[in-house]
Amino acid sequence: MSAQKTSASRTKPVSAVGAFIGFVGFSVLAGLLVTIGVTPAIAVAGVTTTSTIGVFESLPEYIEIGDLPQRNELYAYQGGKSVHFATVYDQNRQELKFDQISDNLKNAAIDGEDKRFFEHGGVDMTSLVRAGVGSLAGGLGESGGGSTLTMQLVRNIKMQQALELPTEKARLKAYNAATETSIPRKLEEMKLAIGLAKKYSKKDILTAYLNIAYFGDQTYGVQAAAQHYFNKSATELTPAEAASILAIVQSPNTRNLSTPKNYDANVARRNVILRSMYAQKHITEDEYRKARLSKPADYVHLTQPTQGCRASVGDGSQFFCDYAVKVVKEMSQLGATAKERAAAWRNGGYKIQTTLDIGLNAQQKQILNTYDNKAETQIALGATLDSVEVGTGRILTMAQNKDFDEALKSAPTSTSLNYSVDYKYGGARGFQTGSTFKAFTLLDWIKAGHGLNETVNGTARVVSPWTKCGQPDYTQFDVSNDSPGENGNYSVIGATAGSINGAFASMAQKLDLCDIETMAKNFGVHRADANPLNTYPSFILGTNEIAPLTMAAAYAGIANNGTFCAPIAIDQVTDASGKKLGGQAKDCSQAVDPAVAQTAVYAMKQTITSGTARGAQTADGTQMFAKTGTTDEAEQIWLVGASTKVATAYWQGNTDGKKLNLRHYSNGVNGTYAGVRADVWRQAQTPVNAAYPGGAFTDPSSTAIRGNSVQLPNLAGKSPDEARSTLASAGFTYVDGGTQPGPGTAGSVLKTSPAAGSYLSQGASVTVYTTDGSQASMPNVTGKNVGSARSELESAGLTNITISDQYERGSGSQQCKVASTDPAADATVGKDTAVTVKLYGTKDGKAPKDCK
Fold this sequence. Notes:
- Helices cover 37% and strands 17% of the residues.
- A hairpin with a 2-residue loop joins strand 11 and strand 12.
- By secondary structure, it is α+β, with helices and mostly antiparallel strands.
- The chain contains 29 helices and 32 strands.
- The longest helix has 23 residues.
């Protein structure tokens, strides 16, 4: 010993001291264990002090194997059946039972790491003393400083416990404590190993060790390692494969088989293990020779881990998977606090049955791939299709044109942002909804007692004042329409079909902006960034940034006779023991009276049949309603609609904040991006209708359609005073429109705006125009004899009348009667306008003999 010390002192004096301390330290531990009778009596001199025994006895002796982190499995539906589509875990591990692990693996572990495993009581004195010739701090040789499998299991358990702590600082501190090279740590490890050996069988300890050990490349446990490195189960490994896996355990970063550069290091340790297996007669000489001669390249078949939503099965399912995982982590089934839920998810073993219809989702993804090019370079184009089941809120689809990239290394064709959902669930901040938001003004209009046939002003103009939370609001809102030709009066049902901004501004003026906001909130509408909805007057036209899923769920609520159901993604959670914990609770509430919702649906059905969503009707004839939405610069385009069973929201738009008009960019298929939204929505909804057949909506009563509106009487020919009195009696306000050229008695009513017969709300203003009497209305004198015709024309105030000498062919009874006039009947003309009257003549068109 002294010679070794002298030699060492000339080259590495510090290491020599460390080696000496290491030897003495192990001697202390060995003597201590002898003293307390843990192992057979192997005397080591000078270490049996009572103080050392006291230190040892003061250490904890209890540790549990516990539940190891396992994989969480996600399931979707396909053809009505549950199918697995994603594996998500904190640690890539799949636990096996003792009988599921191959004998080659068990033997490789024992022969390579702990030959006397079945003989000692958790601590092996022979190995411990042998390890004492070197430094305790480094853990001599391949045995980790005399560590048994049980001691290694203790260390792995403590490392695992460290990884499950809530903060990075706490995790790092505990991990370092579990792996530090010190006598106190080794003492604790030994005592806990002794406790494990007393509490658990050798089978339990060996099984736990093989399930918990880290095998590099984010792979834990022998089953995950076998699948990852060899693409097979740990139940069927060859001696070479088993030894290669166990070769990794002492140096997982340098010996794992994820790269050929580690092969030599792995083979060196593998062959040591194989030699031990042969020496212990666990493999034959032929098996030993064959295994030693084998090369990793012969049996390594590296498979990429199938973990994470990026690897989920099903075209386009990745964004929904990511959303579902975030939702699960909020569910009380996993724990009462965020800390408890996070720990439970890390421990894993859950089976999550989601609501996703993976087949429909794939079909919608393909539609987006076709019509919303993920590789578009002229604009930052995003697009989604989201379908929600009516009456439950279950999310059936969540398709996106971009590919999923959770690693934040977004290529032009991929993104980490889930455009369908709120910021907290996907990172996107929502998009202005345009006129799809008008549904909530329409609903509040009907709720307030107004009718669909009521006439409102649709002209683009500066609109003010408003009512906001019961108080006047004098904000001036310059309302523009989508097309210059959209002006004048519209019925509400017509304005809905045509999406006339000016008309909805007129409707909102008769309501309270806060009531419209409340209506939207009742249907679950909220900003994607979690800020309050802005309620400037412009918000009625969809200026808030809202997630597509939110709009789909809102329209599902309208389709559900006004009962809104919050969107849910999880049907069932089953824990590792097989216990069903339940899914997201169905959360439905009556947002508005069913009759109001039915009336709104009736109006929005016209959007598909004759309005801005023409082309959205599916060939199956399913009754549906919809509303389109286009922002001012057409940088965001929407179509949201529903059958009685499923609502689908289609959104496409700029994702970088720019306002590039989607009407100006070709989709490369059949038109501009914005121009084919109805076609895209129809194609998306067609398979949805096949899978979830819808029925007929309940039509509203005629009373509901009319509301409390009153029909405007015909005031033509009345004096202004008479008109004023009649309007007051009907509850309308008289507005003097002045005098215009027209027929009739000068000063009498010529016309009104809105026109006679229009339905108006109580208090509506009616503009009355009087005539100056300078014109006449051509009477209809066709078929009358020439004398009567002349008399009637003169009575109308027409003075310049000529009987044409040209005749129309006529029968005997028609002769000498008026065939036509120029100007024609009902035309408004000046009183001195030349009027030509043509008569019927003979069958040859000649003049009869006795016409006067």
